[in-house]
Amino acid sequence: MAEKETKNKLKDLIEPVPEEISKLEKEEAELKAKEELPEAEVDERIKRLERKENREAEELKRSIAAWVPKTKLGKMVKSGEIKNIDQIIDSNQKILEAEMVDSLISLQSDLLLVGQSKGKFGGGKRRAWRQTQRKTMEGNVVTFSCVAVVGDRNGHVGVGIGKAKETLPSRAKALRNARLEVIKITRGFETKEEKGNKPHTIPFVVEGKCGSVRIKLMPAPRGTGLVISDEGKKILRLAGIEDIYSVSTGQTRTTFNVAQAIIDALKKTNVEVLKWY
Fold it and tell me: How many CB atoms within 10 Å of residue 221?
């Protein structure tokens, strides 16, 4: 058998996630503001963050303008025949181009912490990428996995998984797959409220599963918040849910299965509503 030593060394996860950078910048601006910085400096930091957000929005507009659709559904979206994403979801049509979703709704994105960086005795910091290796005759083949979640905070959310030999390509694949898997959820109230109020929770109890993970989501009154794990909060916030109770069983340390179980439960809000009517 092969007796030669492996030449390829493990790659260190030293590249910061863009989302982490923006969060750190916002936290730093808030801390500096609390320390009674001059108003001019605080305003300058805020303007810098606003310019960054505007730059990202302009890049998105340019990419949508340069998009050349290849499918019939994409051509209908590009021409303006379809102006609402609910028309596509309600008709059970498959979304094959991510630009369709970007042109119909405004999405926000986040990454779930599915991996762990190196640390003594397994005490490494949680990271957005999960690193795996495959042994071959030539050495170690490293693969990075990433889970992204997108949503408009108004009843639409999607979760996608991406894998690549580098970190940033896996992130791009995960964001693309998340946009392709966008679903519509039904929101409601914990108790009867006046007409015109914004729904803040799910309308009834639903349960989702994936692998050994079982998650039950229950309606909660206003002000309760999201009683769920930190990674589950990211999904529910982007879905537009503000208050919820949850119970989970199984191997919940597997973030991949937890995310899929939450999506499975949210899908059932639409199924139950259809059965009720």
Answer: 12
What are the CA-CA distances from residue 33 to residues 28, 155, 165 (Å)? Answer: 9, 34, 41
Q: Is residue 122 part of a domain?
A: no
Alpha-carbon distance of 33 to 47, in angstroms, equals 14
pLDDT > 90: percent of the chain: 50
Residue 252 domain flag: yes
pLDDT surpassing 90 at residue 248? yes
| pTM: predicted TM-score of the whole model, two decimal places | 0.78
- The range of the structural domain enclosing residue 254 comes to 186-276
CATH code, domain carrying 210? 3.30.230.10
- Quick one: CA torsion of 223, 227, 228, 234, rounded to 10 degrees? 10
